[in-house]
Amino acid sequence: MTVSLPLVFVLGAVTWFAIKFLGVRVWVVVVIALFGFWLSHTVLAPVIESGTRSGVDVVNR
Fold first, then answer.
1. Positions in the chain short of pLDDT 50
2. Which residues make Cβ contacts (< 8 Å) with residue 48, sequence separation at least 6?
3. Does residue 61 sit in helix, strand or coil?
4. Spatial distance between the Cα atoms of 4 and 21, rounded to a whole number of angstroms
5. How far apart, in whole angstroms, are the C-alpha atoms of residue 28 and residue 33?
6. Rounded distance, CA 43 to CA 27, Å?
7. DSSP 8-state code for residue 40
8. How confident is the model at residue 52, as a pLDDT?
């Protein structure tokens, strides 16, 4: 059986786990999310997207 989960759902679950059980503060999560948002508007965005897709392809094989 194949289960398909969006990457955003998986990252959200990891974030919730980090806040709940690892004691990561919410403001740290917000800063990291903002950094990712601003990073997506740079020339590195295509490289990051390509690397993410390649990593997901490796996991799905």
1. none
2. 39, 40
3. coil
4. 26
5. 9
6. 26
7. T
8. 86
Label residue 6 exposed, middle or buried (CB < 10 Å: 0-12, 13-18, 19+): exposed
C-alpha to C-alpha distance for 43 and 38, rounded to whole angstroms: 11
Question: What pTM, to 2 d.p., does this model score?
Answer: 0.61
pLDDT at position 39: 85
Cα-Cα-Cα-Cα torsion 8, 18, 50, 59, nearest 10 degrees, comes to -90
Q: How far apart are CA 41 and CA 22, in angstroms?
A: 30
Confidence at residue 1, expressed as pLDDT on a 0 to 100 scale:
65
How crowded is residue 18: how many other Cβ atoms within 10 Å of its Cβ?
15
